Amino acid sequence: MQRKQAQYENLVKAYSSWLYRYAYWLCGEKATSEDLVQETFLRAWRFLDSLKDEGSAKSWLTTILRRENARRFERKQLQYSDVEMDTISSERQDFDTRPEVLALRNAMHRLPAKYREPLVLQVLEGYNLEEIAAMFDIPRNTVATRLHRARQKLRKFLEGEEELLSIDELH
Amino acid sequence: MNCIEFRHLILTDPSAKPSEAEAHLETCAQCTRFKQEILDLDSDIEKALSIEVPEGLAARIMLNQSLKQTSLLQKRWAQLAMAASFVVAAVFGATLLTVQEPDAGAEPMLAHANHQPHEFSDGEHEPISNEELEVMMAQLQLTASLDNVVYAAVCPIDGERAAHLVIKDGEDQYTVMLVPEHSPSKMYTVDDKIWRGYISPHPAGALAVLADANDEQAVARVREVTDKLQSAIYLSAEL
């Protein structure tokens, strides 16, 4: 039991911050993010014995959190786009508030979840395409396409809907 | 590699440095600028994503877990006390008491089990191959370390795609279902005319392990088999 407790505490210390940030970019609300992280770790405690390889703990916890978030959606039938931008704005005091970062954060919130999620995993935590594909159970090429489109959409948004690439520029 | 291929690569993974991409960079100033723009964009994205984590989060998580543990222990004590009172009641000639557990999403699982292909009732089936099992479980992001699976299918249960297995454990046969989107809060017993067993929480959803109610030997071992299966089926990401 003591060994399990120590293992659990190590996981909490190592991954709670990452899971909170990831949860925030899934749900867009601070309070819900903390709830999701709490639920994730409670579930992790119950099934800690099934974690065979500590090296895969982060992916394991991330998968649990994604499932918890999916359950939350089922329960509340809440769409991400239903989150008022005012709610998001009111939580900005903790953030880097430089205009270019705020604009990008706003763009991230507008990005559809299927593009935002892999981008968060890649940029924030350095997951590679194969790891993201395994986590989402989708082909690697689909992940590549989503990451490509995510960056394109962000650039277009930041550039005021300008086309990303001009064909004349390419050779 | 041409400009289109290079830009696709950089938009997909700006840190990728295959030799073809490096060679293209040496000959194309526009793509060199493009790559720098995307690296700058990623650097800004990282800053935008780095929200502040609330102070004391880790401590609150550990406290919450500890409180849940305490409450679970208290609940177990209460259950023991209740069990003791049952014993006392029995000593004083009370009638047999049957505890009916609340529904744990059991109905759709049992209904599905009742439609299990009839030929699996005779217990004479050959096990399927590990590859077959792997392919079937992968559809649900699951992996199973199981021998002697005689039937495996992805079935609709309660509107969800669920794993439906029939396994042999020694002489005994069990029907196993794992419904990914269900999450029972605790282990429930199943005790009806056809099936006896358990529905329990699993990292991947709700796990039902059922024995033929008329097969006393299988019924006697259903809890042991449930415990075994808890650690023999994983979310694929756990591996």
CATH topology of the largest domain in chain A: Rna Polymerase Sigma Factor, Chain: A
Helix-strand sequence of chain A: HHHHHHHH
What is the overall silhouette of chain B? elongated
Largest interface summary: A-B, 65 and 46 residues
β-strand percent of chain A reads under 5%
> Helix tally of chain B?
8
What radius of gyration of chain B results from the CA coordinates? 27 Å
In total, the number of domains of chain B comes to 3
Provide a count of the helices of chain A. Answer: 8
Supply the number of structural domains of chain A.
2
Provide mean pLDDT of chain B, rounded.
80
Percent strand of chain B: 15-25%
Radius of gyration of chain A, in Å, reads 18 Å
Helical amount of chain A: over 70%
Give your account of this protein's structure.
The complex is a heterodimer of chains A (171) and B (239). Chain A is mostly helical and 171 residues long. Helices cover 71% and strands 0% of the residues of chain A. Chain A is built from eight helices and no strands. Residues 77-93 and 162-171 of chain A have low confidence and may be disordered. Chain B has 239 residues and is an alpha+beta fold. Chain B has eight helices and eight strands, in the order ααααααβββββββααβ. Chain B has helices spanning 3-12, 19-27, 29-49, 57-91, 106-114, 130-138, 216-220, 222-232, and strands at 142-144, 149-157, 160-169, 172-179, 188-191, 195-202, 205-212, 233-235. The model of chain B is unreliable at 91-102 (pLDDT under 50). At the A-B interface, α1, α2, α3, α5 and α6 of A face α1, α3 and α4 of B.
Q: Secondary-structure blueprint of this entry?
A:
The complex is a heterodimer of chains A (171) and B (239).
Chain A lengths: L1 H26 L2 H17 L10 H20 L8 H6 L8 H12 L2 H13 L3 H8 L3 H19 L13
Helix pairs in contact in A: 1-2, 1-3, 1-6, 2-3, 6-8, 7-8
Chain B lengths: L2 H10 L6 H9 L1 H21 L7 H35 L14 H9 L15 H9 L3 E3 L4 E9 L2 E10 L2 E8 L8 E4 L3 E8 L2 E8 L3 H5 L1 H11 E3 L4
Antiparallel strand pairs in B: 1-8, 2-3, 3-4, 4-7, 5-6, 6-7
Helix pairs in contact in B: 1-3
